[in-house]
Specification:
This protein is α/β, with parallel strands linked by helices. It has nine helices and eleven strands. It is about 35% helix and about 30% strand. Helix 3 crosses helix 4, helix 4 (about 120-135) packs across helix 5 and helix 5 runs parallel beside helix 6 (about 180-195). The radius of gyration is 18 Å and the shape is globular. The two termini are about 35 Å apart.
């Protein structure tokens, strides 16, 4: 089943800065898609448009077959509040800078949205949080506050918080870019485990070997367009486009 479908997405900032130039991307249930490319290629903007944090200028967006954005007379038109709320329930987003609530304990960070947004009973939300923290290797940090955790631990809490909302698809925006190499390994291990459990994911990353080994498909972006797309091993090991080759040459081990 198609979880996410984006067609001809354009984003223009301030009427002049064309950041996305007609991007189309679809993601099926259980698929892991890695988006790679140089800084400024539009990767994070694409994720922000997909997760309704940034309004697209033009294009189509649908979750699980339900249209969220259409285009009328060259302008993006968004669905009503009820449809947007339903769409937000389909996805979770993990930021590069964790974005945990600093004044909330780890437990409260995990249960706040399930209780207040999804209406899940408190006891059930707590049980789910405990299971997720156990899975992340953080069962002993349930009462800690973000400032008491390492960067890798904070990011694992952020992933658990996203999972607590039971999303159909998880978006990661460079989840390891704020971490040192040792902590990066912690997070990549968690994402690898989620991939093995068939979690649908879209991951913007600079970790090429990880993308090759974990993703089903790789999308290489540059200058606001998709330059190359295909099976992960193929794109990383045998890129067809010269621009992709030049980009990947910098990452050769």
């Amino acid at each position: 089943m198609n979880i996410l479908k984006m067609e001809n997405v354009r984003k223009v900032f301030d009427g002049t800065l064309d950041v996305l130039k007609g991007i189309s991307l679809s993601v099926d249930a259980g698929e892991v898609v890695a988006i790679i490319g140089p800084s400024g290629s539009g990767k994070s903007t694409l994720l922000r448009c997909a997760t309704l944090l940034t309004d697209m200028t033009e294009g189509e967006l649908a979750y699980k077959g339900e249209s969220i954005v259409t285009t009328v007379d060259g302008k993006a038109v968004y669905a009503d509040k009820a449809a947007l709320k339903k769409a937000r329930g389909c996805f979770g987003l993990v930021f590069q800078n964790f974005n945990l609530f600093p004044h909330y304990s780890v437990l409260k960070n995990l249960i706040d949205a399930p209780i207040n947004v999804l209406g899940i009973p408190k006891e059930e939300a707590i049980e789910t949080a405990k299971v997720l923290l156990e899975k992340m290797g953080l069962a002993d940090k349930i009462d800690a506050y973000p400032c008491q955790l390492s960067g890798g631990q904070q990011q694992r809490v952020a992933i658990a918080r996203a999972l607590a909302m039971k999303p159909d698809i998880l978006f990661f925006d460079e989840p390891t870019s704020a971490l040192d190499p040792e902590l990066t390994g912690e997070i990549l291990k968690v994402i690898r485990q989620l991939a093995e459990e068939n979690m649908t994911m879209v991951i913007v990353t600079h970790e090429m070997i990880f993308a090759r080994d974990v993703a089903d498909r790789i999308v290489f972006m540059d200058g606001g367009v998709i330059v190359e797309e295909g099976p992960a091993q193929e794109v990383i090991n045998n890129p067809k486009e010269e621009r992709t080759q030049r980009f990947l040459n910098k990452y050769q081990q």
